[in-house]
Design a protein that fits this description.
about 85% helix, mainly alpha, single chain
Length: about 180
């Protein structure tokens, strides 16, 4: 397959994978909050959210993750010189983190499908921001490649993480009022 077609498909499935990851954690938050409701509201909401999560997880998110990884491997095979570039090593490190995040989501998914919630909705909101940080890091790495200053990039990412955490706290305070 032509390089540009591979690249286009890879980008499309990265987008659908992230969309699935962003939305699944929102469903986890709603599901966790539903488990705190009184009956019959609890059962009605939990059943509906479990069904929505199952469809999203197995029809969109998992297939997108697998296709993204396969297309990424095909891109690396077509451009093996990328593996000698430092930015690619860092990017692949973030891909490993994203895969671990995905597996963490799968664990939470399984717990909620069994009607159990180990995490609060606030903890899940914070967890949701990890995917945002990985997305920012990967996009900047791919676009800027070797031009990025690692010191400024790292400081920027940490600053962005702090801003996201403050935003989550402010949102919680606003929501509780």
């Amino acid at each position: 397959m032509d390089y540009l077609y591979l690249k286009a498909l890879h980008i499309i499935f990265v987008v659908t994978w992230f969309a699935g990851l962003f939305y699944i954690v929102r469903l986890f938050i709603y599901h966790t909050e539903a488990l705190l409701e009184e009956e019959p509201k609890r059962t009605i909401l939990a059943d509906q959210l479990a069904l929505m999560s199952k469809k999203l997880w197995y029809i969109i998110t998992w297939p997108s993750a697998v296709i993204t990884v396969l297309l990424g491997i095909m891109l690396l095979i077509s451009q093996p010189s990328w593996l000698q570039m430092p930015f690619m090593h860092v990017k692949l490190g973030f891909v490993v983190l994203l895969l671990l995040y995905h597996l963490g989501c799968h664990r939470i998914y399984n717990q909620l499908q069994n009607g159990k919630s180990k995490y609060s909705s606030t903890q899940l909101r914070i967890f949701n921001e990890a995917a945002t940080l990985i997305l920012f890091a990967v996009v900047f790495l791919i676009v800027l490649k070797n031009e990025i200053s690692w010191i400024y990039g790292t400081l920027g990412l940490v600053s962005f993480a702090i801003v996201l955490m403050i935003a989550v706290k402010l949102y919680k305070r606003f929501r509780n009022n």
